[in-house]
Amino acid sequence: MRKSLFALTAVAALFAGAAQAQSANYAIDPTHTFASFEISHFGAAVNRGRFDKKEGTVQFDKAGKSGKAEITFDVTSVNTGTPAFDKHLQSADLFDAAKHPTMKFVSSKFVFNGDKVASVEGQLTLLGKTGPLTLKANQFNCYDSPMLKREVCGGDFEATIDRTQWGMNYGVEWGFPKNVRLVVQIEAVKQ
């Protein structure tokens, strides 16, 4: 009888702990969230750009060490600082913004190292094709924002992708590299 009571108490405590560990919803803060890309230009310089318009949500459970994210980037908002280059990037040669005005990252797996997010695994949809993408966390933290009076979580992430996996082949025959470095800064505000 005593063992049964102990087992029942342990199961009840387990369920009570599971009920307390709930994910919270966060909204992307567009003033602190950017996706940038870098690609070598014939080994002489590095072309860089970013997407200025984005939206998304994150579900995050610190105690349960899990999370989900869905972030959409408007490729018509690509910004390199050179309008003519932006226009070429939006053309059918590269992002084909007329047919594919957005790219989306959807993740259902956050990988932890201790209490910190180490990486986020998911799927990137670009040019109508979806493929795996893992964003490695260079840093990650949650803090109470003194201005917003709410919790904010975010980090600095990076990955290198082979752009031809998504059908972006422009310039490969001339020597432009297939590999593109992605740098994603994200902060999201608890709702």
TrEMBL record:
SMART domains: YceI. The keyword Signal applies. Keywords: Signal. Residues 1-21 form the signal peptide. SUPFAM superfamilies: YceI-like (SSF101874). InterPro entries: Lipid/polyisoprenoid-bd_YceI, TTHA0802/YceI-like_sf. The keyword Ribonucleoprotein does not apply. Residues 25-189 form the Lipid/polyisoprenoid-binding YceI-like domain. It holds the Pfam family YceI. This is Polyisoprenoid-binding protein YceI. It comes from Acidovorax delafieldii.
